[in-house]
Fold:
Amino acid sequence: MRMCSVFALCVIFVGGQTYGNDSMMFNVLLKHTTFAGNGEHGVIFGWALHPDVCPPKQEYKTKLVVEYTLKGKTESKTFQHGLNGMENAYGYFITTKSGETNKGFLHSFFAKNSPLRHGLFQCDISDIPVDAQITKATLILHLDCKDGFANADNSGEFTFFKMNRVWNKDYVDWANYDNGKKWSQSGGDYGAAIKKFHVQKDVKSLGYHKSNKPDVPFDFTDFVKLLQANRKSVSNGVTRVAAFQSTPIITSHVITVRSAGAHTVEILGMNGVSRHSLQGTGPHVWRLPDGLAPSMYLVRIKTQSGVSMHPLIKLKQ
Structure:
């Protein structure tokens, strides 16, 4: 499945917000983005939205499986609420539906256009060592046994977005991310698109169904690699200027340097090898080089005030 399929370039910023330098949060939102009619056919993943029909089980909860190498050894960690006592891994959904409160939505992951519902999942994956090399990351969502995908829906598309704010499961709703604290936009503070999937092509045609093969895997390897790359830059003492709630200094096709004075912009491969170097003076807007191949990169910006690192993904058109 393609990431940010409608974009030639997708730039993702990640930051620690209230977490320490070695922390790493996987935090995404699912939205119904293409639909037939008024979008009444959504998708429900989770474990307890219909407990009378689908008795909740631990294995129904959303989980993230990350594989990595460290010192020549291959390791794997599964992040799921309740697994080995883990707490900070929550699936949820928020809604505009009148009279529908969020109580009882924990561990359910629901996205629909009409009425509007957004699925949320955040997970603390800081147990992955800072020096680990990510090789694979898979988000596994369990189709609700009562609804799942509508049988009539063969044209719908859903998109995962990078969440720009950590939320509190006890208070989150359509308007708020914490007790008395409002999102900057209703429905969640989300930013760049990460991945889009088509109901028929990417799910149904592969045999996934609520009554047969209900655990649907989504590849988030590139996204977790970027989280890890940004985390390493912090742990190695590199100063970041782009945090969750700051205005991005890199847009879809340009790199904007706002600092006065001399500066250097380097585009690096994930192995740290420089691919392009740009030098200028004063505030400047740089276009990404035309010859930059679709891949993952790091952008390193050096100014008189310091150095900042920014992960990006350039995709095939």
Observations:
- Confidence is low (pLDDT under 50) at residues 1-21, 235-252.
- Residues 221-235 form the longest helix (15 residues).
- DSSP finds two helices and 20 strands in the chain.
